[in-house]
Amino acid sequence: TVLGYDDVCKIDFGTHINGQIIDCAFTLTFNNKYDKLLEAVRDATNTGIKTAGIDVRLCDIGEAIQEVMESYEVELDGKTYQVKAIRNLNGHSIGPYRIHAGKTVPIVKGGEAVRMEEGEVYAIETFGSTGKGYVHDDMEVSHYMKNFDAGRVPLRLPRSKALLTVINQNFGTLAFCRRWLDRLGQSKYLMALKDLCDKSIVDPYPPLCDTKGCYTAQFEHTILLRPTCKEIISRGTDY
Questions:
Q1: Catalytic residue ranges
Q2: How many structural domains compose the chain?
């Protein structure tokens, strides 16, 4: 894929050392007409980071994020759009070898009153859209992740057993894509992969889309709630 001048590209990536995960994302554009969209979402993410802390309620973070993000408007090709928080996407707690560790950080008002706790790690990520502010599954699935809570499930297909062994040995409970299976020399594995998904051993992660023709942006950082401070462990000199 070759990016064009009017394209909007979101880069969402993760890295880990011995299962300690950092999750991070930013949005890249070349045309400055999208600047207000990016500014809205970046400001919302930074607001979420500022609001987060030990004993803070997750619902209060979501309310603060939405208030900031939806105060922005962006003019695109002569039409003005309110930037809307995508209400069915959210941030999340992170655990060892577990990118989604159970707690969710909403980006709109009305989330759970669960509180953050000392020592927890969170991905604070926000998503803004010029569309409806609601996404749905669409297009072909290429990304997958083994279900962290999947117990031992009997598998009848030899290919499914073999593929699960490859996944366990190379990815464990971390995300992977089909291209990585190809690079490992795997072939004719789609039926086996579907079988693992049907049995909830592996979860598929399809692309998420808002209304056709709208634009979305995402910014994300990972924070660690230390006893005396809040550390942004994904922050660098460039972002």
A1: 12, 23, 92, 100, 125, 220
A2: 2
